[in-house]
Structure formats: C-alpha cells, structure tokens
Amino acid sequence: MNKKQSVGAFGPIYTQFKNKPRMAIIHLKKVKKGECPEALYRSDIGYVDIVWGENDPVTNKGFGLKHIIEKHGKEIKELGFEVEDFIPIVFEYGEFIKEKSTK
C-alpha cells in the first residue's frame, strides 16, 4: 500500500529529510516544488524547514531555495560551493541576529 503524499502551503511535503539538509536541498532542486520540514536544526533556533519557494526574475524578490539559487547562486559557485553544501554551513556556523521590531 502506498503512503499518500501530504500537501502543504508550498506543495508536497517531504518528511524523509528531517535533519538531512543537503539531501533536502538536492531533492528540492530536482523536483522544484514542495517543502522539507525540519531539514535544518540549530540549538539556539530550533528546527527550520526548507521550501522551494518562488522568485520574481524582474525584481529578484521572493523566498525559499529558488530565491536563494537565483539571487545568490552565482556567488555561491564563485566561492567554490554548491548550494546544497553552502546553506547548511551558513546555517550551522553563521551568527543569528534577531532584528528588533520597528513597530
């Protein structure tokens, strides 16, 4: 019996990539839709989902993996990385700065 694929706000939900950010990114680059819940984890932040997302090619505004690839993919390559390797490194070792609300 096949397990029915859950669908969320960003498309198909791929739960098999919990704590597997590199595999999640590779999969989303291939299928170009959906979300991988809890793919990333950091003790000070908790779990973070990776979504395929969208990007406007004219304004270069958007969200998710598609936006990161289209806006920063060239720079990531120039640094000698593939996006599936770079994002987990930045997430793990980058400084988390919580912005204050302007309201």
Explain the layout of strands and helices.
Layout: E1 7-8, E2 11-12, H1 21-31, E3 35-42, E4 46-51, E5 54-55, E6 62-63, H2 64-78, H3 83-93
Antiparallel strand pairs: 1-2, 3-4, 5-6
Task: Please provide a written account of the structure.
With 103 residues, this protein is an alpha+beta fold. The protein has one domain (7-92). Helices cover 36% and strands 21% of the residues. It is built from 3 helices and 6 strands. It has helices at 21-31, 64-78, 83-93; strands spanning 7-8, 11-12, 35-42, 46-51, 54-55, 62-63. The strands form 3 sheets. A two-stranded antiparallel sheet has the order 1-2. Strands 3-4 form a two-stranded antiparallel sheet. Strand 5 (54-55) and strand 6 form a beta hairpin. Helix 1 (21-31) packs across helix 3. The longest helix has 15 residues, at 64-78. The N and C termini lie far apart (52 Å). The model has no long low-confidence stretch (mean pLDDT 92).
